[in-house]
Amino acid sequence: MKEIVIAFRSWKEAHLLIQRHRLLQEILWPGIVYSVLALTSLYFFAGSSSEAVTWMSEKLGIENWLQQERNEWLSFLFVMNGMMLRLVLMLFYFSLFKYALLIVGSPAFTYLSEKTEALLDGKEYPFNWSDVKEDAKRGIRLALHNAGRQLLYFMGLILLSLVPLAGWITPLIALALEAYYFGASMLDYSFARNRFTLQQSLLFSSQHRGLAIGNGIVFFAMHAMIWLAPAYAIIAATLSVRQVKKV
Prior knowledge:
Layout: H1 2-20, H2 24-60, H3 62-69, H4 72-104, H5 106-121, H6 129-160, H7 170-193, H8 198-207, H9 209-221, H10 229-246
């Protein structure tokens, strides 16, 4: 819980840092591009998730069975499970979009994390394209690694969501997984600059899950102002890593 609080506070500090150093103009256009892509994806994801649930219900014969049983309690249970399955699928689709964002945006995230560290230290870090390229490659490897693991978890959650009552908790588990893996990706940009290996970065994130989950949760909450979410996430992650290193 302490680390989750640190992650939450780091988002507030990120907002103050962006204001103080007038970084808003630097995150404006990437934010607009992200918003357009996210909203377009959400539109298609919502439609396809409903179609997937309908197709699955027809193949399993659930609708016909419920009509034969005419039991209101059973109907309620399966309607709720259908809703939970739709939410899990939406989060799964968003996960795919998120990893595409992390892969495409790796150079920009690397630059923004380095600039944040430079502003905090009061130093000028020379921009080195080769370093940015290496850190971007590392970010892509981490995104692919996390995508593979998260895919396995989501398959299990999709199956669990079909179980009455037990399936109702699957959206919360899926959201926690989303938050953790996104936060871990954001934290890694700071670890890469501190010469952590990828394995050390993964171990640190697993030992400090609160930092990763907290960063990811506020990332999702920031979608009320969707275009600011990625830039705030990387700045807040850089700030939270610095705080933990001081403890």
